[in-house]
Amino acid sequence: MKLLVLPGDGIGPEIVDQTLRVVNWFTENAGLTIEIDYGLAGGASIDDCGVPLSDEVFAKAKASDAVLFGAVGGPKWDALPRASRPEMGILRLRKGLDLYANLRPAISFSALLGASALRPEIVRDLDILIVRESTAGVYFGEPRGIVTSADGARAATDTQAYHENEIRRVCEVAFELARARNSRVCSVDKANVMETGALWRAVTTEFGNQNPDIELSHMYADNCAMQLVRAPKQFDVIVTDNLFGDILSDQAAALTGSLGLLPSATIAHGAAGQNFGVYEPIHGSAPDIAGKGIANPIATILSFAMCLRISLDASREAALLEEAVRLALSGGIRTPDIAAPGEKTVSSAGMTDAILSRLNDLSLKR
Ligand code: NAD
Ligand code: IPM
Ligand code: MN
Fold first, then answer.
1. For 72, 198, 238, 327, which has the most beta carbons within 10 A of its beta carbon?
2. ipTM of the complex
3. Is omega for the bond preceding 143 within 30 degrees of 0, making it cis?
4. Distance 192 CA to ligand 1 centre (A)
């Protein structure tokens, strides 16, 4: 398979380098053939050729079987207008490749219960999947822009827009994935305030009626934010729009202990059909810790596990990698973001060393 690697900015290249050590382990030890190519994205691409994702890199992504993406953005490019910011690099990939379902699993590791902001009993055995719509909504709606009137006052506009087909197709993915889990989907919207919310609720309700094997419930987004902290285990699959999904998934990350743990896959259809995906951690370029070599590589390594499962159809290898991560954590290996006060910590490379050593142990046992 052809894997295009886009490291990006800040900690992006650091965590991607660590993940590539894991990719290499699988090509050397698990008989997988992965042909790797590289490209620039985000600020790194702006510095090189003036745009956050060039046509050339876009074409390479399109010709690949999967993309491993680090993170983009940083203070150096924060003053740029929206359309030319680093963040447009990832948005162009999602939109341009029509990758409308962004899967963001939040699973708690028993070894990390102490790292969660919540009490252990609230998060023990947490296993939720947020399915975030990723090609529409307020991220892409038109009109948008900022205008300055004659008196010098500025006014900005964004448009939240959804077509019913965009809602239905992300529902399809959420329902399909729920079937392999606990068959429950909670759809999150603001149907009480927004026109798009009312349409979201109508379409999900119709879809639920046509698929009675799945238990569908609805929740307002503000309540969902509260319920995620109060009793997160009530959820199985959450399906929601682009912006709510962005916010709620960072919140779900805090339940598991760190933003540095949560992987994602952005796909066009669930397990069946098209296998292309963009795999990336849900976190950003973390300028506050960039260059220090201490970023947690687990979110990106687990994103590669999602790539193994979805794009390579290598679910045994994916499970092996997830088990190696779990064992490294239960062996007490901690990057600073998941360490208790005073606990010994390792670098990004140290965490990857520990995961690779567990992979070696596990493969000997097989
Ligand atoms: P962020 O996710 O980069 O960081 C938030 C906090 O989490 C920081 O304290 C950071 O140190 C910590 N953190 C994140 N990843 C970590 C990891 N792997 N290990 C340890 N700690 C980690 O969010 P931000 O600070 O709001 O944004 C920084 C930049 O990243 C912005 O330019 C933003 O637009 C961009 N961003 C990009 C993506 C992406 O590329 N997909 C996602 C989110 C934010
Ligand atoms: C994410 C990020 C992106 C988003 C930004 C960088 C465009 O926050 O992947 O969660 O908002 O989707
Ligand atoms: Mn985000």
1. 72
2. 0.98
3. yes
4. 32
- Fill in the amino acid letter for 354: A
Residue from 16, 285, 347 to probe ligand 1 pocket by mutation (most atoms less than 8 Å from CB) = 285
Contacts of 24 (CB under 8 A, 6+ apart): none
Near ion ligand 3, which residues have CB within 5 Å? 246
C-alpha 109/C-alpha 127 separation (Å) is: 10
40: helix, strand or coil: coil
Tell me the sheet residues that pair with 128.
106
Alpha helix (H) ranges present in 124-279? 164-179, 195-210, 221-230, 242-256
Task: List phi, psi (to 5°) of 217.
Answer: -130, 165
Identify the active-site residue in 189, 190, 279, 337: 190
Cβ count near 119 (within 10 Å): 9
Burial class for 284, CB neighbours closer than 10 Å (0-12, 13-18, 19+): buried
In the chain, which stretches have pLDDT less than 50?
A: 270-273
Half-sphere exposure of 337 (CA within 13 A, CB side): 24
Ligand nearest the Cα of residue 243 is: 2
CA–CA dist 79, 172 (Å, integer): 39
Q: CA 140 to CA 161: how far, in whole Å? A: 8
Q: Is 60 assigned a catalytic role?
A: no
pLDDT single digits (tens) 207-226: 999 999 999 999 999 999 99
The two three-digit tokens of residue 337, written as one number: 């973001």
Full-prediction pTM beyond 0.90? yes
Residue 286, ligand 1, Cβ within 6 A: yes
| Spatial CA neighbour of 220 closest among 200, 250, 237 | 200
The CB of 252 under 6 Å from ligand 2? The reply is no
Catalytic residue status for 222: yes
The Å distance, Cα 162 to ligand 2 centre, comes to 19
Pull the structure tokens for residue 50. 């003036």
Complete domains list, the chain, with CATH: 2-116+257-365 (3.40.718.10)
